[in-house]
Amino acid sequence: MADTYQASRQWERISRHWVTEEAAVDLANFKSGRPNHKISLWNPEVNGVRYLKTLVHNLATALGPADWERLRRTTHRDVGNPIAVRVGGESICLDYLQATLELGFIEQSVDLAGASVLEIGAGYGRTCHTLLSNHDIAAYCIVDLRSTMHLNRRYLREVLDDARFAKIRFVPVEDEDVDAALRESEFDLCINIDSFAEMAPETARSYLDLIGERGTALYVKNPVGKYWDESLDGHVEGDDALRRAMETGLLREVLDIHDDRAVRAAVPEFIAAYRPGDDWRCVADAWAVPWSFYWQAIYRRGRPSTGPQR
């Protein structure tokens, strides 16, 4: 009978190398180390994809019917072989999960039928893809670095049909007349997702001045501050990259990004920083799922209300 209740070969190895008598001597950090990674948790340093897929799966199970409809209308989401899971028969990755949540938030405050949209910093184009797939957008202008524009132009050409792609105007920031070109147009909605925080402060303010003059509504989703927690990424890109990152954006206060009270305390400054002008007001704001220190807000131009301004 004693032979029946024995450790497996797998656990013989674990007991020999990691969950040892020595591991029980000092409990100060054992929950963040290899013994606990074998007992309770997958080691996040080597199981990042596992945790990412778990995050996407859990978030997807909370999506509502309108969210799933937005996703289904946004076809060709698997171009580029994303890290994705399947929920309810649909393939979904974190990028497009965020895009559908962002669009759902925007739709509550902005009429997108026949809208002219300006996106400042489009990444590879997921937001543009999602908006054009779900609404009859009249025109969509992307302003971006020329190097990034090579990618988003190629990607959007791949995932959109001819009619939708023809609505997009690509404006490289390196063009000498970019400011004049943008000031010739008016925009029903301006969008910035996760790039104002990566610009020089004066650049971000210049864009906000432009939006204040030529826009009617602004959707912004960015961090409420900076972090300096080496345990999150190991500072793998080195000190120079860290210094450059800390210099950018309008909100440069370092905070504990996984303390919800610290994050919420920074929200009023976030709301104030991204307000494009005195005649603009914040009409909606909320935590931007899933990142703990990201916030989103919608501003509209118009005469200030009689109540307090956000």
Structure description:
The chain has 310 residues and is α/β, with parallel strands linked by helices. The chain folds into 2 domains: 34-93, no CATH class; 94-301, Rossmann fold. The chain is 41% helix and 17% strand. The protein contains 13 helices and 9 strands. The protein has helices spanning 9-17, 34-39, 48-60, 65-73, 94-107, 126-134, 146-159, 162-165, 178-183, 201-214, 230-233, 238-247, 260-273; strands at 84-87, 90-93, 116-120, 139-144, 168-172, 189-193, 217-223, 280-287, 294-301. The strands form 2 sheets. Strands 5-4-3-6-7-9-8 form a 7-stranded mixed sheet. It has a two-stranded antiparallel ribbon with strand order 1-2. Helix 4 crosses helix 5 (94-107) and helix 5 (94-107) crosses helix 6. The longest helix is centred in the N-terminal third of the chain and has 14 residues, at 94-107. The chain is globular, with a radius of gyration of 23 Å. The termini are far apart. 31% of the residues are buried. The model is unreliable at 304-309 (pLDDT under 50).
> Which sheet architecture does the biggest sheet show?
7 strands, mixed
Overall mean pLDDT stands at 92
Distance between the termini: 71 Å
Identify low-pLDDT runs. 304-309
Q: Helix- and strand-based class?
A: alpha/beta
Q: Helicity range of the residues?
A: 40-55%
Give me the number of helical elements: 13
Strand content: 15-25%
What's the shape? globular
- Just name the CATH architecture of the largest domain: 3-Layer(aba) Sandwich
Oligomer: single chain
User: Major sheet: order of its strands?
Assistant: 5-4-3-6-7-9-8
CATH superfamily of the largest domain: Vaccinia Virus protein VP39
Tell me the number of strands.
9
Structurally, the number of domains stands at 2
| H/E element sequence | HHHHEEHEHEHHEHEHEHHHEE
CATH top level class name of the largest domain: Alpha Beta
Return Rg in Å: 23 Å
Question: What is the fold-level CATH name, i.e. the topology of the largest domain?
Answer: Rossmann fold
